[in-house]
Amino acid sequence: MSSTRFQMVVRRVVKPLGAVALLVAMVMYSTHACSRKIAPGKVPARPEPSPQGWTTHVVHRVTLPGRAEVPGTVASVTLVQIRAKIPAHVQRVLVSAGSVVTASQELVVLDDREIAEQLAAAEAQLRQAEAEYRRTRGLFETRATTEQMLLAAETARDAARAQVDRIRVMLSYTRVVSPLTGVVTDRRVEEGDLVSPGQALLSVYDPTQMRLEANVPVRLVSRIHVGEVLDVVLPDLGEVRKGTVQEIVSEIDPATRTQTVKVRLDNPQGLRPGAFGRLRVLTDPVDTMWIPERAVQRVGQLELVRVWASEGRLLQRLIRTGRRENREVEVHAGLDDGELLAVPAGGS
After folding, report:
1. pTM to 2 decimals?
2. pLDDT digits over 230-248, tens only?
3. What is the C-alpha to C-alpha distance for residues 325 and 298, in angstroms, rounded to an integer?
4. In which region does residue 53 sit, left (phi positive, over 0), alpha (psi from -120 to 50) or beta (all else)?
5. Which of 69, 138, 205, 337 is the most core-located residue (most Cβ within 10 A)?
6. What is the CATH code of the structural domain delimited by 54-63+287-344?
7. pLDDT of 172-189, one tens digit each?
8. Can you give the residue ranges of every domain in the chain?
9. For the segment 206-215, what is each residue's pLDDT rounded down to a tens digit?
10. Which CATH number among 2.60.40.10, 3.40.50.880, 2.40.30.170, 3.60.15.10 corresponds to the domain 70-77+208-284?
11. What is the DSSP letter of 96?
């Protein structure tokens, strides 16, 4: 066999063997067949140090009185809607919505020219009737006329006097005044408007007497009593104030199965009609857990806390929360009684 042919045979044999050897080496490397094996077992966890500036909090489950919060609306105990009593044009509007007014202060002036003319005519008729009465009485005293004529003159005088009084009352209606000391709201007219009897002009409410009106479900009404003091949550002010139950409307709304409860607020400062509020009604006791609000970390829509595990590790735990009060948050799920939380010190 020539050397050239021998070399060709070697190449045909060695190349496939080399490829197989390389493949075997790669398989052994990837499966760590040549590495020293470690026997299975548990590796003790090293306790993590407490984060700097953090404290701990033990979770406790406590039994507290249950409560439900019923939405309601703030209203004034005294709200007067002022309406026109005569047909006339609006001459002047002296106040705006939000103006503070006193009792008997002039609010709206109506055109009184026509009524003033009627009053002048009625007063002229009254003077004529009084003169006729005096003349007839003088004749009656001298027996120159009958008692029937005297009675007719007296009746005419009294009718003329009543007509003057009636028109004077109508004239007073052209000066619309405030019936109480309070705040103007809901202004509905402008200068030049033609108003008719019964048309609303504006409203005035007393800011010193405010209450919450809430439609309470029938199942909770039995837990409320007139004269009872309840908590009223006012989100706009970020406060919880006390209120006394004034009235429980006996009628049940057939659409919502609720009854209206009116609660007089002890402190009306800063409140305005129409503001939102919630009435707290006590229910059966419930088991609950509360933790510091600063212990909760929010990531998007998720709420997380850091919990110390039994091995000394600090783990993140997903929780579900509820109400928030006094910088604490109620936990509905995710924690157990006795667990230890890591809480940032200070802050809110």
Report:
1. 0.63
2. 999 999 998 999 999 999 9
3. 17
4. left
5. 205
6. 2.40.420.20
7. 999 999 999 999 988 999
8. 54-63+287-344, 70-77+208-284, 80-204
9. 999 999 999 9
10. 2.40.30.170
11. -
